[in-house]
Please model this.
Amino acid sequence: MQFILFIIILAVLILVHEGGHFVIGKKCGIGVEQFNIGFGPKIISRRHNGTEYNLRVLPFGGNCIFEGYDGEDDSDSPTSFINAPVWARFATVAAGPIMNFVLAFFLSLFVIGSVGYDPPVLADIIEGYPAEEAGLASGDEIIALNGHRISLYRDVSTYLFFHEGESVDVRYKRDGLFYDTRIDPRYDPEEGRYLLGILGGQRVKGNWIQTIRYSVSEVRYWIEITVKSLLQVFKGRVSKDDLTGPVGVAGVVGEVYEESKSEGFFVVWLNMLQLMILLSADLGVMNLLPFPALDGGRLVFMLIEAVTGKGVDRRVEAGFHFFGMCCLLLLMIFVMYNDITRIIGR
Model:
């Protein structure tokens, strides 16, 4: 069952991402040669209106192959990707990651509409900890930490995690009035981390306006988590064991399923949707990275063309993207090997 859930989640994410490229490309008059879900040999193949739709063996990705996508087509065909206006090409490439954010938003609407959101309101204060000494009390709403806007209670934990041990200027609201205080987190040896001594995170159901508002905050939260985690990688603060790929994600799906199946189908369904929100936002961010072969890398070349009025030589650009694809494949192999060895070693 876990494997089936993993395949369904992956298929939906890929379908939405590639579907974004496909629909906008078609709307811009760009010819689509292939629409692929998965890699490797074909399982099912159909041709319709000049496009070949393929379901392939390996479900770890997909692509939308446009006519002349990598500069291989030097014809004057009006439907060739390279002959489309730069704005049309930009919109077509950007549509994939944008659709992942849109999917995350609509999934958030369902989850938050079902179980509510977690406003940054304190449920309790732990006696003897810095928050009590600073004058915070249950019912206070955290507005900002060191000027960083707080929308969800999880934002508090996330901020403290990425700024471990730092003094925090807290802006909070009580009875409609705003207050400011400074708190120095205290290290708790039992927890193994710095704590303010606050408790919260209780979910609240709101009206449809609040559901929309907090659904936006939910997507923003996961985008921010992904970006901050990537920065930790670039700063060298993440080990290889912290990296995970499709195999690792499949393991997480299995763990979530096992932990929630005793609570019934609806809880399993909500937890899977919550996981899809995270993965969809993550996929959108990762694809926007300005790295060759990724959507973000292609967008960089298009921005150069839009600003200078002349694009980079297409063969040079194709070479960059080929190099990037080779690097990504090597990274994928490494991460997959790391996932497998970690699972075997348990």
User: Anything to note?
Assistant: The longest strand covers residues 32-48. The domain at 122-200 is CATH 2.30.42.10 (Pdz3 Domain). Residues 314-344 form the longest helix (31 residues). Strands lie at 32-48, 51-66, 122-125, 141-145, 148-149, 168-174, 177-183, 186-188, 193-195, 198-200.
